[in-house]
Write a sequence for this structure.
């Protein structure tokens, strides 16, 4: 079984796997439209994590993990809790295209997608509003800023040819907000 990750699974799968491949799926775009009150946020300050939005002509890069034998049941049980129970995600099968040109045909992979029907779905917002929400959110897996920056770093390092305007616009907005927060805190300490 192959499992496609496009958010925190790209750097922290949390399950054993036999091999991994960087690549993409078509027909979906990655969006910070899913709320998170456990891993990267709380009930009072939900974090923002990514989900996939069906979009003709779009492409989302990530990592596919191959799980075999006993790894299958263990990984699916783990992901069911992490993504479905705690995250509000549903599963779908997608065609994964490995980055390696010699890999041959696309691979059928399982992917977790949060839909607008789940109670944690936040939907669209401006890049500035998403960045502002990310700055103040933190959960049991760490700060929401780490999630955003690790995902942006993954894209730069493993998929430099790929475009993800949504992700990089939010990162840019976050970086522009941080210095003003630092200066505001500094001036508050002086008074």
């Amino acid at each position: 079984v192959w499992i496609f990750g496009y958010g925190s699974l790209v750097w922290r799968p949390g399950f054993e796997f036999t091999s991994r491949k960087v690549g993409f799926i078509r027909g979906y775009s990655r969006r910070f439209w899913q709320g998170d009150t456990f891993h990267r946020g709380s009930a009072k300050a939900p974090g923002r994590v990514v989900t996939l939005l069906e979009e003709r002509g779009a492409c989302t890069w990530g990592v596919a993990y191959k799980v075999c034998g006993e790894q299958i049941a263990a990984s699916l049980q783990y992901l069911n809790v992490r993504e479905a129970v705690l995250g509000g995600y549903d599963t779908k099968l997608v065609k994964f295209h490995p980055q390696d040109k010699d890999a041959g045909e696309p691979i059928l992979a399982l992917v977790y997608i949060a839909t607008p029907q789940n109670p944690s779905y936040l939907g669209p917002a401006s890049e500035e509003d998403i960045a502002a929400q990310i700055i103040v959110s933190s959960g049991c897996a760490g700060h929401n800023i780490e999630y955003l920056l690790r995902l942006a770093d993954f894209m730069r390092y493993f998929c430099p040819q790929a475009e993800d305007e949504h992700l990089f616009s939010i990162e840019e907005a976050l970086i522009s907000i941080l210095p003003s927060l630092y200066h505001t805190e500094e001036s508050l300490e002086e008074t």
Residues 2-182 form a domain with the Hypothetical upf0131 protein ytfp fold (CATH 3.10.490.10). The CA atoms of residues 162 and 174 lie 21 Å apart.
